[in-house]
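Quick one: structure tokens for this chain, please?
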Amino acid sequence: MNPQQSDLQRALADLDARLGRITAEVGEVRAGLSALARQSGPAVGGQSPGESPAESPWRAGAPPQGTPHPVTPAPFGAPAPAGAPSQPVPAPARPGGPWRPPGQDDPAGRYGPPPAHPDRPAHPDRPWQQADRPWRQPWDAAPRQSPRRRPRITAATVIAAIGGSVMLAGIAFLLVVAIQAGLFPPLARVVAAAVLAVVLVGLGLRLQSRHDAAITDPTAHTDPRAASDPDGTPVNPGALALVGTGLAAAMLDVIASTTLYLWIPVPAAYMFVGGLALGGMALAGRWSSGLLACLVSAGTMLLAPLISTGVELPIFVAIVGIATAVLAAELGAAVRVVWSVLPGFLLAGYLSQAALHSRGEQIALIATALVFAAVGVGVAWFDTARRRPALANAALVVVPTALPLALLPATHLLRPGWPVGLALAAAYLAVAVLAGRTGRDRAHVLLAAVTGFVGSALLLLTWVELGGRELTGFALTLSALAYVVAAGLWGRRWVDLVAVAASVIAVLVYAAVNQPHLALSERLAVREFTYWDVVSAFAITVLAVAVTWWARRRLPREAATRVMMVGAVVALAAFSVMVVAAGVVIGDLTGVARNGFLAAHLVVTVLWICCAAWLVLTANPRVADARRLGFVLGSLALAKLLLLDLATLPGLFRVLSFIAVGAVMLAVAVRYRKETEPSGSGSPT
């Protein structure tokens, strides 16, 4: 026998054995699938419940009836492989051909192996079985459920919203125009509006209940494309419009009964309107409908001024806004804008005219503004901590609700208003600190920034109401100093921005109010400078030093160097003004203010030249280019000596000034020569 022929026969026998094993495994798989199909009941690949595999000729992997099963013969008389069945086992078939590769003529992959469940271990030796459930149906037969999403704005929704708004306006005209035309008596108007509101709400609820019944009925569910809310219950836009219009009409009717006809006491009307608003927002939250929330809140807020313009109007609007914020704040940015912006501006407008109202009305407006702002901060905090809304939602809520608080310090009832403004600013700044320390994500950072800016603005307005230009400038400087220290210690970007803005404002206000340039004129300085100039100049000096410290901690090296040099110059200039003002004040106490001014200028000149000498001679200056700054400062000191002191100072002060400046400059020259000589030169001294 040829050796090559013997090797070929052995290879073919081995290949035949492998094919036999594969055929046996496929047969076992088919047997298991058939058993599972009989147990599970639903059809597998077209098999009906109760049908045996032999009765289902078109099931997956089975050839049509009458088609012989392909049998793999054992060539060359090789024995059957171990584990192979005694009877011929049909080979697996696919649509379009028995040996077509996977995926061809099977684009969905429904005859491929089922995907492994991520949380359940599969059986590697029995691939047709899953961990704890049978293979019930092809894998593309059950569509994956889409994530929850809100109803889309459709043409029906737009038409319903417009129709509800038009009807609501008609109801408002019924309550107002009928009075002017004298068409109906007051009782008929109120009763007609109430009946119409009840009918609208009842029709809306009935329409929605019928719609729910039609959708949940399997025989009536014919439109799979119906939009549904996050709970999976479809909402009819017409029902939303009817219910929203009815509830808003009911609230307008209560407002008219209270403000126009005085039939309902004002506290009871507040309770009725609040209850109706809460009911509408609870229904809007249940249906997850921002349209319903906007119809109830915006419809009432925009049409209520047609009925009443008294002091009760902003309180009614704020009550509706608070109810919307408590139960429907998560229904979208439009709802947030409606409940926060409209009441905020309306309250601010009425507080700006608070002096025209009585004491009780002012108290009601102030209390409403405080509660409304507290609700705004609380909703913003809850949104940031729990709901994870868009980042702009914090600004949409906090800023409009805080707008009425800006007018509280100027309210006649609260004079002096700066303690109230200071408490409000402290409250917002405390919220900013807590939000910044509680969370590190972007939502908490934004909430901290918004509340911090609002608190800073309230603090600025509080100092404006403090009274007195000098006291206001000093308070602004202290606030800027506190922000700079907080920015250096805390390390938040929004605090850095507030610190920079507050520092610039403080320096500009100081330059406009205290007029530090008066220190160059003897006549003006003696006449204008007071102890407030000493205190304010000292505060600006400390602020400039704090800015240089902040720059070293927070800015890159090059930017920090520039800021530190500017801060050092500002600090030296402010300290020089403080010395001159202190000299004038002390001289005025002793009766010789002119001599105090002259002595202060002598001290300033010596101070400048000494600072220049220190910058030039310092071996390891902390500020880069400090030596260059020292030369500039020395040049300024020399120019002051020759141009100002020589013309202003009398004989003895002039002599002392020149001697002191000359001595310092000679000492600098000697020391600077030693430092710049090459080492080891050995030149005699």
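Residues 42-150, 221-233, 679-685 have pLDDT under 50 and may be disordered.
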